[in-house]
Amino acid sequence: MSSREPSCPFSQAMKKPLGELGSADPPISASSPPGQLPATQTSVTQPSVTQPSVTQLSAKQSASNSATAAPTAVSPVVAPPVTHGSLVELSRDLLGGLRGLHAQHGPIAAFQDGDQRVLFLFDPEYNRQVLSDAQTFHAHFFALRGPKRSSQRRVTCGLLAMNGEQHKRNRRMVKEPFGPRAIEGYRQTIAELAADEVATWHDGECVDFNERMIRYMLKVTSRILFGLDEPALAYELGEQIAHWVALNNDFGVHALAPLENFDAGYQELLSFAQELEANVLKLIHHRRDNPNPAANDVLSILVGSLDAQGGLSDEELVGQCCVLFAAAHMTTAHSFSWTAFLLAQHPSVMQTLWEAIHDGTADEPHPTGAPSLLERVIKESMRVLPASAYSQRIAAEPVRVGPFEVQRGEPLVFTPLITHRLASLCDDPQRFDPDRWVTLKPTAYQYHPFGAGPRRCIGGPLAMEVLRTSLPIFLRDWRLSVQPGARIDAEVKSTMLNPKRGVPMVFDRHPQTTGEGRFIATAIEGNVAELVDLIEVPATNLPRKPR
Ligand code: HEM
Fold first, then answer.
1. 322 is in an annotated binding site
2. Which of the listed residues 165, 332, 385, 457 should we mutate to test ligand 1's pocket, taking the one with most ligand atoms within 8 A of CB?
3. What is the rounded distance in angstroms from the CA atom of residue 28 to the CA atom of residue 148?
4. Among the listed residues 375, 344, 349, the one whose alpha carbon sits nearest the alpha carbon of residue 503
5. Does 299 map to a domain?
6. Banded model confidence at residue 33, pLDDT cuts 50, 70, 90
7. 462 occurs within a structural domain
8. Which domain of life is it from (predicted)?
9. The ligand 1 atom nearest the CA atom of 225
10. The total number of structural domains that make up the chain
11. Ligand 1 neighbour 171 (Cβ under 6 A)
12. Could you give the ipTM of this predicted complex?
């Protein structure tokens, strides 16, 4: 196998080819070859800890394997336990791996594969330390970056791959099309696209709702990013970037495994990136040559933005466009799918929301100033099943995190998937309960579906707008129920929590009457029931057609 590079923190286990190391990348050590050490074992190794930290664990705490363990001030200092194993194996079932590491070690866990260690942070205080300090903890884009001076390197050169001054400047420039005024300008287009989407639904049909939402988000993202006024051109480019994203995602986990066809796939990715770069450049030149002050899609705004250095170069625009698309498309599609799934399986919440959509109050703020019902539903769905399952930082210099001395280049993983379900955040964390948001006011590091700190998701408000505008249009005249007996499995792939086999949903057009039985949960199978408490449903329970 020739040139490989990491695509996620677990692939740090592989050595990066020297020619492909980015100049800003800290050195990454190599370790055991993939495929070895399938079994994991926990041992207690002595890290170089010299003095107690407020976030150190007591032996009792770490041994209790409590799912709710949180850092507390304790002494004396004990060696934190480390799980030894294969990062390749861990990445094969990352969902199980993350949950297992947390259950085993509590607030912070170390996973050691040969000489490569990855730290897993599960507690808000560790999130605060790492996410608020962008100087010490650098972002490391999970996508394959490609050789230096390659198209793949340039199309992945967006915010997610930048650090330091370069990140600060690009973030300032890219922020503009995601501000409140710009987002307001996208609302009408989103509503029209949502109406177009429901116009394709048929009464009684069963579809993979996730697949539908991926296609829907392709349209929404393409239009908002590349052309509110030139939809055909925007979709064409969107389709191409979506294919490129899919090629990248294919490596998400497989880059760790010794796949026979890895090299062929990698070459395909590199040559597809060349085509993509050429097409994005064509659109950028077209926008530069035909400036339209009324155009308010993201690319037009970015092309026209100027700063003291004169604005973003074509090369910077290419990277930003591709990475923005990649960051927006699937994450929002999965958020739609999980929200629809949770609503379908919680009929009383769905009934309340449906009534509020019909009486026009769904998006009204709560009398106490708490979020609207619609927003509470979305926030709770993102708490229980966050589309972004984990992300990572790389230590740019030696630093102490809790009981660990972290070396330069060492990856640290943070994960809303675990932090959002700590008992210190809320009661019954596995319960889908949108009304908890009437009183729940978590810190930015306890609840972070969009990340936190200076690298918080720049498109978060846009994603919320897309969800808030589209959901009432989807749900007003349609009942969405999960196909009885469907298997709903969640898996972590390319940093996202996605429904592995999709979400088969039955669409029923329903008349505007109220009544019991309008919405009904169905009996389903799959590992999603390990992540969220679902109502027990008799296997024969089928949704009734309202009269
Ligand atoms: C529900 C949908 C979304 C979710 C769950 C999500 C999640 C996240 C998360 C967790 C991060 C932080 C990653 C880190 O700290 O390493 C992030 C960053 C980012 N997101 Fe999103 N995102 C969503 C939608 C969007 C949209 C719609 C866009 C743009 C159109 C976008 C663009 C970005 C960018 C550019 C960054 C990098 C920010 C930086 O490094 O300064 N995201 N997103």
1. no
2. 457
3. 17
4. 344
5. yes
6. very low
7. yes
8. Bacteria
9. 30
10. 1
11. yes
12. 0.99
